[in-house]
Automatic annotation (TrEMBL):
Belongs to the zinc-containing alcohol dehydrogenase family. Class-IV subfamily. The keyword Kinase does not apply. The lineage of its organism: Eukaryota, Viridiplantae, Streptophyta, Embryophyta, Tracheophyta. This is Enoyl reductase (ER) domain-containing protein. Its cofactor is Zn(2+). Residues 209-293 form the Alcohol dehydrogenase-like C-terminal domain. It comes from Aegilops tauschii subsp. strangulata (Goatgrass). GO terms for molecular function: alcohol dehydrogenase (NAD+) activity; S-(hydroxymethyl)glutathione dehydrogenase [NAD(P)+] activity; zinc ion binding.
Length: 312
């Protein structure tokens, strides 16, 4: 408590991996993290993971995020201090930050048919309420831009409370960090977007973190047959542990197309197909694998991949 009282209203100096030039290696720097303002939470990061979206934006030139910046948006941490008007979480709470806000008051947050908060739109530089940053270089005071409202490649970060979800402290942080993005994307696509029915047949194209989460979501929804499609043969066993019932490796089916194999396995096509790679050719194959006359649900992976899922 004494330490919390000493640091709550003061800047914290810590280490962060800073992206100074697009496509160049991140540099470990001592940074200063300002105390949280109203509606903000300062978090001690316990664990962060690397998402494909981080890599995508790291490579981009002449496009947000502006440099220098602190990337990262999949993390788990502990609340170190809170600003005024924060009632949702308290100091000591285990949380996951998420880059899609949920203010809880705007028409889109109150609607079951929307998944993007219009009260605090995503993608704007700086903190969502005032556009400023809470990061600076400790040596020079030069500001450092944040990323997607999270910036988790640092020991401490400041996040708007609308971007924070409280978590049971018993969840291991190395697993909890995946809930920030990849897992919620996949499970959200199956559970909320497609609303897969019990007994359905499903084909999941690409068994990365998002695709495996889709398989889990479909299993949780009661899907009877979940077909995983991936070029990596090791994904067969991993997928079986996480929900798939059948596996297709496109390299092992000869002259046939994946859609032909899926239609043969399902008697005319899968009820739902999820494309989790970000390839137009695979997306077309997913459409071809869908049963005619059924709603087709596709989930793709790209720079703004996670807009298909909405955190609780």
């Amino acid at each position: 408590k004494t330490m919390e009282q000493n640091t709550a209203t003061k800047p914290i100096r810590c280490k962060a991996a800073v992206c100074k030039v697009a496509g160049q290696p991140l540099e470990m720097e001592e940074v200063e993290v300002a105390p949280p303002r109203a509606h903000e939470v300062r978090i001690k990061i316990l664990c962060t993971s690397l998402c494909h979206t981080d890599v995508t934006f790291w490579r981009l030139k002449g496009f947000p995020p502006r440099h220098p910046s602190i990337l990262g948006h999949e993390a788990a941490g502990v609340v170190e201090s809170v600003g005024d008007h924060v009632h949702e979480v308290a100091v000591g709470d285990t949380v996951v930050p998420v880059f899609l806000a949920q203010c809880g008051d705007c028409p889109d947050c109150l609607s079951d048919r929307s998944n993007i908060c219009s009260g605090l739109p995503a993608g704007r530089p700086g903190m969502p309420r005032d556009g400023t940053t809470r990061f600076s270089f400790a040596a020079t005071g030069e500001p450092i831009n944040n990323f997607l409202g999270v910036s988790s490649f640092t020991e401490y970060t400041v996040v708007d409370v609308a971007h924070v979800v409280r978590l049971d402290p018993g969840v291991p942080p190395e697993k909890a960090c995946l809930l920030s993005c990849g897992v919620s994307t996949g499970i959200g696509a199956a559970w909320k977007v497609a609303a897969v029915e019990p007994g359905s047949s499903v084909a999941v194209f690409g068994l990365g973190a998002v695709g495996l989460a889709v398989a889990q979501g479909c299993r949780m929804r009661g899907a009877k047959r979940i077909i995983g499609v991936d070029l990596n043969p090791e994904k067969r066993d991993i997928g079986k542990r996480l929900g798939i019932t059948d596996f297709i490796n496109p390299n092992d089916i000869g002259e046939r197309t994946v859609s032909e194999v899926v239609k043969e396995m399902t008697g005319g096509g899968a009820d739902y197909c999820f494309e989790c790679i970000g390839s137009t050719s695979v997306m077309a194959e997913a459409f071809q694998s869908s049963r005619k006359g059924r709603a087709r649900r596709l989930q793709w992976r790209c720079a703004d991949e996670h807009t298909l899922a909405r955190h609780p």
